[in-house]
DNA sequence: TGTAATTCCTAGCATTATGATAGGAATAAT
DNA sequence: ATTATTCCTATCATAATGCTAGGAATTACA
């Protein structure tokens, strides 16, 4: 049930971008360096993200990428679907990339019934967690770990 | 977030086995034929299942496989872990196959926080759904689809 | 206008994971 | 004995994944 590196790297970079919304665009070079991600591979990740409107690009010196929308309105599910094509654990329960499995009757296939619930559980999280939510949760945690003066 | 074919085939075969608990052992040949699964590949799946005690094997003519425990006591999570090694979407949230990711601070890594919740959601389903549950649910559905005389 | 920094685009490579096959030894029922 | 099976190891083929290379196009700015 592994998340691909494409999605992992994409999400890491977008969390970082979300954290600097409003500032000037960030170059891939900088994003890669700061998040410890392979620069050249990142290009392949940001191309579909741009085509999907999740990020905006600006060419040339001083250029780079910025979020295409408010981080509150970009949900992780959309990012994963853009980069991996689907979220479903088996193709016969996918909403956007459905393909039949080997079971004779989908309605009564035990695997399908369970995996459909798994898909729903995953989707329920990733489609209700925005970039803003994820970053905010991270900051909450980092506050928890600080020594707060009384 | 795909489930591997190993786990898919293994689960399909075990659902079938669960449905005939108490009867004589079923040969791989029969299991493969009835469930449309590749026979030779199944051997590689049933070896670890046997080592894990999930199934019992009987060699020789008339032999085959049967469940090692009551289907109520075999949960899908155990099967998937046996066949795939782990359930977690990223290694840094895995309970049984933990490996660090590239994030500098795990406690505040947004990806890790979200993927940990995803892992919990998946595990909550597969560790609380037994073979018996899955088969029962399937039969409930097939009844729904029958014409019930009034 | 030139230079440097960037995205954009296509091609291709390397490695691993996955899915599957082959062949024969061991085991056991009949 | 014969037959049907598991057991075991080796191996292969393909696809997916992760990644690199190189250069064209674009843009800021000195």
Mean pLDDT of chain A: 91
CATH superfamily of chain A: Winged helix-like DNA-binding domain superfamily/Winged helix DNA-binding domain
Q: Which parts of chain A are unreliable, with pLDDT below 50 for 5 consecutive residues or more? A: none
The percent range for strand residues of chain A is 5-15%
| Secondary-structure class of chain A | mainly alpha
**Assigned CATH architecture of chain A:** Orthogonal Bundle
**Strand elements of chain A, count:** 2
| Computed CA radius of gyration of chain A, to the nearest angstrom | 18 Å
Question: What kind of oligomer do you see?
Answer: homodimer
Question: How can the largest sheet of chain A be summarized?
Answer: 2 strands, antiparallel
CATH domain fold name of chain A: Arc Repressor Mutant, subunit A
Helicity level of chain A, as a percent range? 40-55%
Q: Biggest interface between protein chains, with counts per chain?
A: A-B, 46 and 46 residues
* CATH top level assignment of chain A: Mainly Alpha
- The total number of structural domains of chain A is 1
Approximate shape of chain A: globular
Tally of helical runs of chain A: 6
The H/E string of chain A reads: HHHEEHHH
Distance between the termini of chain A: 44 Å
């Amino acid at each position: 049930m592994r998340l691909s590196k494409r999605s992992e790297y994409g999400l890491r970079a977008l969390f970082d971008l979300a954290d600097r919304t409003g500032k000037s665009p960030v170059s891939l070079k900088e994003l890669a360096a700061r998040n410890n991600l392979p620069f050249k591979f990142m290009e392949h990740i940001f191309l579909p993200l741009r085509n999907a409107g999740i990020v905006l690009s600006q060419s040339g010196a001083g250029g780079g990428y910025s979020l295409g929308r408010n981080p509150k309105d970009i949900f992780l599910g959309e990012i994963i679907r853009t980069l991996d094509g689907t979220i479903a654990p088996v193709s016969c329960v996918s909403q956007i990339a459905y393909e039949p499995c080997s079971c004779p009757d989908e309605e009564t296939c035990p695997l399908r019934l369970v995996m459909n619930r798994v898909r729903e559980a995953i989707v329920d999280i990733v489609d209700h967690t925005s970039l803003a939510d994820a970053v905010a949760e991270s900051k909450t945690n980092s506050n928890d770990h600080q020594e707060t003066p009384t």
